[in-house]
């Protein structure tokens, strides 16, 4: 009980200097701790309804798209591939692969101890091969992003921050330049600093996958299939990485500076390309609050949670 | 092994220029029926162009 409460309870005691001061201390969100607790309970009860659900479409999409993408290589060499169409599809597979992998990063396809755990791991592994981003590194860095969201020193994705949309698109490319400490170069440095066995494995996986990528590109190129290699793997990788960086990192977290709180580290926004083409990132806040809610259910979960989020001070005006 | 790989990745832009940009340039020139200057073959021009671009990228740390 604080001094304010004591004064109120003692007969004849002098009134506190500010009579309009609330009985219970309020937090920076303008809510007292009992209100916060009740809202949190209500929030969890609603969020629980959106956890789980059918995850097999992610598995089918991951393995199916990977198989189709792999088939492009022999078909291109045999001259039986429509290259422009294959290039467009490869760009979609490279970009969408991150979504299926992302579910695997959070073990949403199968938890630890499940007999289907291997499916979760393989979905993660095959999904990010087109963008040459090994699952072990992707998972470690993504979980670090969740733990330290918008921390300039500890959030691995902080290098994606930019003042506006055009600068953000430019930065998706700039951060991949060989001499810039952004994107995967930044990840490599963080992994080396972590020094854990998992980090060492992720670093090794990254080197192996990058060497494999270069070997395939060089071999195809010097065998007379440089244009095919460029349109099936090299270009889709760059398109995918830029799209992912923009929609999964910059758009939902901008502006990052000083926004580290649970309800402020991710924003609700209206995408010009719509919910699906922005990979459900308009409601990415729900994912940060409850990573166990699958990507395709975050929109419905958002509308169910919206009244609570508004009370928490989240700007829900965009949707 | 780790040291060798580190050295390899340190010159990767240059290697990428020779290993990928060079043949890609040559094949695009042949496809678009563009004659290389100075009587060079498309592959020789590709190697000069890709090697130079990769080397510059390696030194500057930027492809553009």
Explain what you see.
The complex is a heterodimer of chains A (319) and B (64). By secondary structure, chain A is mainly alpha-helical. Chain A folds into 2 domains: 30-52 and 261-319, no CATH class; 56-253, no CATH class. Chain A has helices at 3-9, 33-48, 56-77, 83-105, 117-127, 135-147, 165-174, 183-194, 197-253, 274-277, 284-289, 298-311. The two termini of chain A are 41 Å apart. With 64 residues, chain B is mostly helical. Chain B has one domain (2-60). Helix content of chain B is 75%, strand content 0%. Chain B contains 3 helices and no strands. Chain B has helices spanning 2-10, 12-31, 42-60. Classes of the chains: A mainly alpha (319), B mainly alpha (64). The interface between A and B is medium-sized, with 18 and 21 residues.
What's the topology here?
The complex is a heterodimer of chains A (319) and B (64).
Chain A: H1 3-9, H2 33-48, H3 56-77, H4 83-105, H5 117-127, H6 135-147, H7 165-174, H8 183-194, H9 197-253, H10 274-277, H11 284-289, H12 298-311
Chain B: H1 2-10, H2 12-31, H3 42-60
Question: In a few lines, what is going on in this structure?
Answer:
Chain A has 319 residues and is mainly alpha-helical.
Descriptive key words:
heterodimer, A: 319 residues, mainly alpha, 2 domains, 12 helices, B: 64 residues
Percent helix of chain A: 55-70%
General shape of chain B: elongated
Please tell me the overall pLDDT of chain A: 91
Regarding quaternary structure, what we see is heterodimer
Structural class call of chain A reads mainly alpha
Task: Give the overall form of chain A.
Answer: elongated
Largest sheet of chain A: none
Please state the structural category of chain B: mainly alpha
- Counted by DSSP, the helix tally of chain B is 3
Spans of chain B of at least 5 consecutive residues whose pLDDT stays below 50 are none
How would you spell out the order of helices and strands of chain A? HHHHHHHHHHHH
**Count of individual beta strands of chain A:** 0
Describe the biggest sheet of chain B?
A: none
| Element-level helix/strand string of chain B | HHH
- How far is the first residue's CA from the last residue's CA of chain A? 41 Å
The greatest interface here is:
A-B, 18 and 21 residues
């Amino acid at each position: 009980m604080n001094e304010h409460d004591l004064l109120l309870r003692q007969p004849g005691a002098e009134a506190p200097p500010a009579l309009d001061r609330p009985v219970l201390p309020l937090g920076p969100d303008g809510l007292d701790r009992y209100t916060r607790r009740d809202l949190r309970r209500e929030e969890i009860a609603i969020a629980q309804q959106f956890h789980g659900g059918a995850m097999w479409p992610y598995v089918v999409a991951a393995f199916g798209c990977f198989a189709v993408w792999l088939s492009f290589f022999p078909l291109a060499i045999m001259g039986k591939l429509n290259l422009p169409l294959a290039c467009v599809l490869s760009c979609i597979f490279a970009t969408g692969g991150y979504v299926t992998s992302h579910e695997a990063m959070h073990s949403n396809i199968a938890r630890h101890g499940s007999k289907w755990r291997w499916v979760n791991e393989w979905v993660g592994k095959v999904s990010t091969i087109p963008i040459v981003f090994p699952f072990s590194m992707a998972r470690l860095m993504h979980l670090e992003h969740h733990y330290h969201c918008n921390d300039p020193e500890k959030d691995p994705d902080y290098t994606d921050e930019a003042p506006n949309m055009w600068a953000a698109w430019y930065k998706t490319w700039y951060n991949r330049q060989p001499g810039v400490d952004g994107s995967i170069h930044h990840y490599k440095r963080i992994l080396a600093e972590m020094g854990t066995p998992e980090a060492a494995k992720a670093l090794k996986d990254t080197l192996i996958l990058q060497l494999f990528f270069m070997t395939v590109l060089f071999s195809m190129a010097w065998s007379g299939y440089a244009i095919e290699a460029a349109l099936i793997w090299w270009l889709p990788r760059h398109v995918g990485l830029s799209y992912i960086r923009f929609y999964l990192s910059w758009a939902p977290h901008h502006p990052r500076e000083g926004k580290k709180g649970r309800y402020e580290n991710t924003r609700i926004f209206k995408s010009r390309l719509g919910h699906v083409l922005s990979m459900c990132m308009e409601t990415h806040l729900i994912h940060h609050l409850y990573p166990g809610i699958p990507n395709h259910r975050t929109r419905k979960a958002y509308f169910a949670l919206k009244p609570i989020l508004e009370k928490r001070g989240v700007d829900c005006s965009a949707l | 092994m780790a040291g060798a790989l580190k050295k390899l990745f340190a010159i990767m832009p240059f290697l990428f220029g020779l290993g990928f940009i060079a043949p890609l340039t040559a094949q695009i020139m042949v496809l678009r029926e563009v004659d290389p200057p100075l009587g060079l073959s498309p592959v020789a021009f590709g190697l000069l162009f890709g090697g130079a671009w990769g080397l510059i990228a390696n030194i500057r740390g930027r492809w553009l």
